[in-house]
Amino acid sequence: MSELRTEEYHLSMGPQHPSTHGVLRLILKLDGEVIKEAIPDMGYLHRGVEKMMENRVYIQIIPFVDRLDYLAAMNNNLAVVLPVEKLANITPPPRAEYIRVIMCELNRIASHLVWLGTFALDLGAVTPFLYCFREREPIMDLFEMAVGSRLTYNYIRYGGVASDISDEFIRDTKAFLSYFRPRIDEYEALLTENPIFLQRTKNVGIIEAKQAVAYGISGPMLRASGVRRDLRRALPYSVYDKFTFDIPTGTVGDCWDRYIVRIREMRESVKIVEQALAGLPAGGFKIKVPLNLKPLAGEAYVPTESPRGELGFYFVSHGTNKPYRMKCRAPSFCNMNILQEMLKGWKIADVVAVLGTVDVMLGEVDR
């Protein structure tokens, strides 16, 4: 009796596949439905952002980073401003620091909402997608009120922020936070204990803590594996050390843990914004910084906690009005590398769930 054998073959998933969220291509080596090897091909943008920034004066750099992670542009603004301020010995006023935190945490909530909605949609749940985008709209309204735009902001500047926030902004932000907290309970009611959702996410795509650290994973993916590291607490920047908040962590490091960590992070961001609004100091929102800024010669790197993990910009200055060298440490790029290990042994249907919990942003991958 002859043995039944299957033939290995390669399947290209993406970059047109809707679940790859951009221009990611996964080259899957399959034995039937089982994945033997998964190779991410991330080079489809080729924008050369880092080199472009090295040929711009410092004030022209900020709008570029809005487009690296366009779902968390405020966090990118802050990350690129901090090392330049360090080189130039610039200290923003206290009010500006509080405004920065408010904007970054609101943007963290908005980013997690897009992730949660699209992740649920990838798994076949339409209602959470509609709910998440319903809640994201008021945040975009707040940003439009303060900045004048809804996606890319160019708001956080060297020495402060572009404009002060109004009493109307403060009032509407407080109203949003009161409205939003029970909405998180709605998301959990739909998903957290849902049998189908549990079957698709529990014990799927496990990353052990040692493995996550070895691969340089950061952000919610790292914390979902049980590593309690959040740069807002571990290496405090801006005024994050003035606020009380928890660091949600998982235990197994599977898709479900990565989901619940982000759910809980939204709750913590609400707490931070409430504290920042309550303690918002009076005073100026920006100090005077020359348009033709020339930081001192030297180098600086300030790691920050973006919604996807450690985001930092390394600058080398020769004392001119343009950086000699600039390098972006993008969390999505580092987090993507472990996909090869996460997908081995799983089936094609699991790729969508595992990839979704990485929360990849292709704009900051192929820079």
TrEMBL record:
GO terms for molecular function: NAD binding; NADH dehydrogenase (quinone) (non-electrogenic) activity; quinone binding. It comes from the Bacteria. Pfam families: Complex1_49kDa (PF00346). It is found in: Cell membrane. It is a peripheral membrane protein. The keyword Cell membrane applies. Residues 122-288, 294-367 form the NADH-quinone oxidoreductase subunit D domain. GO terms for cellular component: plasma membrane. Its EC number is 7.1.1.-. It catalyses: a quinone + NADH + 5 H(+)(in) = a quinol + NAD(+) + 4 H(+)(out). InterPro entries: NADH_Q_OxRdtase_suD, NADH_UbQ_OxRdtase_49kDa_CS, NDH1_su_D/H, NiFe-Hase_large. NDH-1 is composed of 14 different subunits. Subunits NuoB, C, D, E, F, and G constitute the peripheral sector of the complex. Belongs to the complex I 49 kDa subunit family. NDH-1 shuttles electrons from NADH, via FMN and iron-sulfur (Fe-S) centers, to quinones in the respiratory chain. The immediate electron acceptor for the enzyme in this species is believed to be ubiquinone. Couples the redox reaction to proton translocation (for every two electrons transferred, four hydrogen ions are translocated across the cytoplasmic membrane), and thus conserves the redox energy in a proton gradient. This is NADH-quinone oxidoreductase subunit D. It comes from candidate division WOR-1 bacterium RIFCSPHIGHO2_01_FULL_53_15. The gene is nuoD.
